[in-house]
Amino acid sequence: xxxxxxxxxxAGNVGATTAHWCAAAELGDIVLLDIPQVGDMPxxxxxxxxxxxxxxxxDSRIIGTNDYADTAGSSVVVITAGIARKPGMSRDDxxxxxxxxxxxxxxxxxxxxxxxVLIVVSNPxxxxxxxxxxxxxxxxxxxxxQAGVLDTARYRTFLAMELGVSVEDITALLMGGHxxxxxxxxxxxxxxxxxxxxxxxxxxLEEIVDRTRKGGAEIVGLLKTGSAYYAPAAATTxxxxxxxxxxxxxxxxxxxxxxxxxVGGYYVGVPAILGAGGVERIIELDLExxxxxxxxxxxxxxxxxxxxxxxxxL
Length: 314
Ligand SMILES: NC(=O)c1ccc[n+]([C@@H]2O[C@H](COP(=O)([O-])OP(=O)(O)OC[C@H]3O[C@@H](n4cnc5c(N)ncnc54)[C@H](O)[C@@H]3O)[C@@H](O)[C@H]2O)c1
Description:
The protein is α/β, with parallel strands linked by helices. The protein has helices spanning about 15-25, 40-50, 55, 95-110, 125-135, 150-165, 200-215, 215-225, 230-245, 290-310, and strands spanning about 5-10, 30-35, 60-65, 75-80, 115-120, 145, 170, 175, 185, 190, 195, 250-255, 265-275, 280. Strand 13 and strand 14 form a beta hairpin. Helix 6 (about 150-165) packs across helix 9. It is globular, with a radius of gyration of 19 Å. Nicotinamide-adenine-dinucleotide (NAD) binds near residues 11, 13 and 227.
């Protein structure tokens, strides 16, 4: 029996760090791919990471490449290819460039790993995952976007900092698009089983939600030269693990919703069960009036983004 193959397209900050977390968790063999213009950079990062294995104690074959033939037969493909935000840029500013890039990646993966589950990370996320599904023609449940795990992790971090409790005791859920319209769900947020609304007053909770919404921009502003990658890569790794180990994790992901929540055929962030088949079930909650209104606003923003993408010559 061989190990599962995990291919990561784009060997930049998010891609290489995802390789790092996946290797450390011994999830499988890893292929790190980037474009020929970057030369042997993916080979260098892969070899360096592999040389950490005797110290950290993981068995994983890690290779870097510019050739899709090396990714053939992957179980999971993570797509991080594209450009990242710089200060002053919104995620949506990346639309045209990244839509072309992820489209070309999807073409290649379709030919080399037709059975893979695809996890899209490139921004603007909700549009990019739609583009990858369309070009690959893969079943919707095998093309998923990473956003909700990261956004929820940021929210959990800020709540733990506020209350001075372990992050492990905080469970939370955010829905909707990956952007300023993400929808917090106070009714689904608890601290050691206690509803968060009994521990933090509404005004302060709103401030924490606002910081979460702008969590990506806060890091971009601090780094100056790129965007966040440790937490995005950790979030992506949690999704890889759920698929590789068929864990049936119930986590927020960008999943294709048609009748679900009345979305009408778009990728948006919803709670879903993630296992070997990709998105195995979307959990439909009966939303409270404010949550429903916020979720609709978020879906409208995703629709606008997809319409803008459809208007481009790709
Ligand atoms: N969904 C999320 O939560 C989330 C979080 C952080 C970053 N992102 C997004 O992930 C993407 C990557 O971010 P990063 O910080 O790693 O950027 P980066 O610039 O460090 O790395 C991107 C890599 O993609 C490569 N690339 C470009 N075109 C390619 C192609 N056609 N095929 C293969 N590789 C290609 C580049 O050469 C580069 O090495 C960005 O779009 C960023 O906005 C998403």
